[in-house]
DNA sequence: CCTTGTATG
DNA sequence: CATAAAAGG
């Protein structure tokens, strides 16, 4: 299993892992102590590019953590006022009138640790989903702060080889039958992008799809390698059980899905290659749940660049999705964009199912 | 002249330079525009270590700036309350009773741009020195923000080759006879550490002495190369006119000059090598003006590490000095440590002369 | 604009 | 603990 995952539980359960609180002693200052802990001397240019090295040994057989330094998170501001007005209770029903009994939320948090400092977990408590899917933790599994734990949920984290890059996680109330890290293809699984939770009636796939990059340096990798293999993976799951795919798909499908389609035809996330690739995936028997329910709703976005006050002008993109196996249409109650919830350059999205 | 300097004047004067205000247009977002400004593609590991490259062409013959992007400084907090109580007027006199008529201040600001955001210039206005010496600008000359200008002063900045590293500057009311960048030795002058202002009665040398580093990797360079050559430089000036040397000398001379001498005998700034090297410089005919006036004053520090709340415990170091040619003793009114002034990990120091 | 690791102090 | 630049988004 190439990527490194870790499990940490709050409710008493078999395999429970206690997260060590770090002791209070701060690092001694070099200016205030004689014997600084000797670090190996590195020549100025020994970094070897960017984000390659891992600092810490992680879990061994029984999932116990061996990592040493752990960031101490202090909540510096709270995003909770941004959703004080929101009614989080489900109202919509399935076509045949059944009420939602399973709620899944998904959020690209743009850095788990910064998000924790903004009291991001307050959203989880308010939304109270059965499963919360997180993308872009930018945090090595061994460095996930203890403050990331949420009462009533078990969390499972995944990170890749590059420090501070990518990374996904899930919180769940009900233990899945199985949790799988990655898609079983080594060349894709070293970036910490996919967690699959198998439930009785469906697979839940949490994904952070690779960004094609500013000058599209990774467009070919994204559309010709990743998308192709990930599509196969989804198909293989779908042959066994229905699939709920959620996360940051890093594509705005149609012109309606971003504010400025004309100006972004060669921008990552709206290239014709990425759009057609997403179309190809849907053709394998999946639906874009939001667009299925709201085919003509404009200005429904889930991402706004931090620049140029894009969010205040709602100059955004719909990059986050719940994609469902077509046969889950009959279980679909609602697909919601929580556009007012602050704390990241993405907002959360929510799926209500009657399952 | 190896280091790059620049002059910018506020009062009308020959050679006056107007600093271009940048236009309002922010950079277009890659996510919001089609044609992002093409930057040359760089392979992931082409950095060549750290801080080598210069981004911008700087001034030419007449000191005109050609640099393009300039940081827009917004004052985010003000340090002025930290010195609301201070009486900045001079009281002390020379041994023969003459009053001060020339005030020099010196401050390691730990990043000019961050210091500007804290309204560091408010200190200059309050102290109102004839010359203000600044160390550790960490700012390329071409990137000095327009907000660094102060009414009534002309400023002169110097930076080295490495971006965001070292750098010094001076503000003056009265134009010096001559301003010299560096000490005329190429191997030292690429780090932007010395500005010499020649006045009628003395040379003023503003210095940021190289730090020996955490594991003392630069101790030999510091004591056997820099200190040796810099000492010669001071001596050569002293043969012509008295010298006022000020700045961050990165050494605490004696045990009285830091809180924890026992624990720091192999810490940069208190090694025996650095201390003896400073002694050797003083033996060439200079005095440590503060210690000359206050030989037994304890707990007089100018630097406190940001870590461990060192400043609140006054666990500091005296690293900043006014060193004078011995024959300036008769002109010395006072040498003051402004220990309450916040805004950096160093505090300002002030020299009062009757000249 | 914002977060991240790294270098430096 | 704080500043900075670079890379990624």
Automatic annotation (TrEMBL), chains A, B:
Annotated site (Transition state stabilizer): 250
Listed GO CC annotations: nucleus
Cofactor or coenzyme needed: Mn(2+); Mg(2+)
Site (Interaction with DNA substrate): 346
Active site: 208, 248, 346
Site positions (Important for catalytic activity): 320
Keyword annotations of the record: DNA damage, DNA repair, Hydrolase, Magnesium, Manganese, Metal-binding
Domain of life: Eukaryota
Segments crossing the lipid bilayer: none
Keyword Hydrolase assigned: yes
One BP term from GO: base-excision repair
UniProt cross-references to PROSITE patterns, sorted A to Z: AP_NUCLEASE_F1_1, AP_NUCLEASE_F1_3, AP_NUCLEASE_F1_4
Region Disordered, annotated ranges: 1-74
Cofactor note: Probably binds two magnesium or manganese ions per subunit.
Molecular functions (GO terms): DNA binding; DNA-(apurinic or apyrimidinic site) endonuclease activity; double-stranded DNA 3'-5' DNA exonuclease activity; metal ion binding; phosphoric diester hydrolase activity
Biased composition (Basic and acidic residues): 10-26
Endonuclease/exonuclease/phosphatase domain mapped to chain residues: 105-346
Entry-linked NCBIfam families: exoDNase_III, xth
Family: Belongs to the DNA repair enzymes AP/ExoA family.
Name of this chain's protein: DNA-(apurinic or apyrimidinic site) endonuclease
Record organism: Candidula unifasciata
């Amino acid at each position: 299993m190439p990527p490194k995952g870790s499990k940490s539980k709050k409710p008493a359960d078999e395999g429970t892992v206690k997260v060590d609180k770090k002791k209070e002693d701060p690092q001694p200052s070099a200016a205030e102590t004689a014997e600084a802990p000797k670090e190996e001397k590195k020549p100025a240019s020994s970094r070897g590019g960017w984000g390659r090295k891992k600092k810490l040994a992680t879990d061994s057989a029984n999932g116990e953590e061996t990592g040493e330094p752990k960031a101490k998170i202090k909540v510096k501001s709270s995003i909770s006022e941004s959703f004080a007005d929101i009614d989080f209770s489900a109202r919509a029903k399935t076509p045949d009138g059944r009420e939602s009994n399973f709620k899944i939320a998904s959020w690209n948090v743009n850095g788990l640790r910064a998000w924790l400092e903004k009291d991001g977990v307050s959203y989880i408590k308010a939304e109270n989903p059965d499963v919360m899917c997180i993308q872009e933790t930018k945090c090595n599994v061994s460095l996930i702060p203890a403050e990331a734990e949420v009462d009533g949920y078990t969390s499972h984290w995944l990170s890749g080889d590059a420090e501070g890059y990518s990374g996904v996680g899930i919180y769940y109330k009900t233990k899945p039958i199985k949790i799988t890290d990655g898609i079983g293809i080594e060349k894709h699984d070293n970036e910490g992008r996919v967690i699959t939770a198998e439930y009785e009636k469906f697979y839940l796939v949490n994904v952070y799809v690779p960004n094609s990059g500013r000058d599209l340096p990774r467009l070919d990798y994204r559309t010709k390698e990743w998308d192709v293999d990930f599509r196969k993976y989804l198909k293989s799951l779908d042959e066994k059980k229905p699939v709920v795919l959620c996360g940051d798909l890093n594509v705005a499908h149609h012109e309606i899905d971003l504010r400025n389609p004309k100006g972004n035809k060669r921008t990552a996330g709206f290239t014709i290659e990425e759009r057609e690739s997403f179309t190809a995936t849907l053709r394998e028997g999946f639906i874009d749940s939001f667009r299925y329910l709201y085919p003509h709703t404009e200005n429904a976005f889930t991402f706004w660049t931090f620049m140029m006050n894009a969010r205040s002008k709602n100059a955004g993109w719909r990059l986050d999705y719940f994609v469902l196996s077509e046969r889950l249409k009959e279980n679909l109650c609602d697909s919601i964009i929580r556009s007012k919830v602050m704390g990241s350059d993405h907002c959360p999205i929510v799926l209500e199912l009657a399952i």
